[in-house]
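User: I'm putting together a teaching handout on how sequence relates to shape, and I'd like one worked example. Could you take Isoprenylcysteine carboxyl methyltransferase from Streptomyces viridosporus, show the sequence you're using, and then write out its predicted structure as tokens right after it?

Assistant: Happy to. First the sequence, then the structure tokens directly below it.
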Amino acid sequence: MNGQVLFTVLVSAVGLERVAELAVSHRNAGWSLARGGVEFGRDHYPFMVVLHTGLLVGALVEVWVRRPDVVPVLAWAMLALVAASQVLRWWCIATLGRQWNTRVIVVPGAPRVTGGPYRRLSHPNYVAVVVEGLALPLVHSAWVTAVVFTVLNGFLLATRIRTENTALARLA
């Protein structure tokens, strides 16, 4: 099996993980809204969906069209970072429980979570997103996708973190 096929399997696995996240998010959104949850940042959510889909599609297109050479030491290091980002992401999901969501929905009066990875970082899930967004394409030297996603994601995260902080401050 060649490297492009293996990379496609990896990106497909990450895509399936994202589908699982969306199922959890949908369930949790219903739970939050049923308890008076208020959604913030609805305007930037479609851009986030397009950007994250673009990461997966862009990496595959770049690898199959540009056919970059794989640098083994880089590939293994980036694969380890992709795995670590998945572990961190699911640690965040488990720690937040029903309060975790891909949208910004805050339930008034719900306690702020300060355990798990939130003990040390305010937004550990975004650390996972940043690491994955850079590392996943670089597993197969798709540096164009890694750079474009990272720059656009930086702008998105600035908006997203500001939105979350405002929402938490208003409804805490």
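A couple of points you could highlight for students: Strands lie at 38-40, 104-106. The two ends are 52 Å apart (CA to CA).
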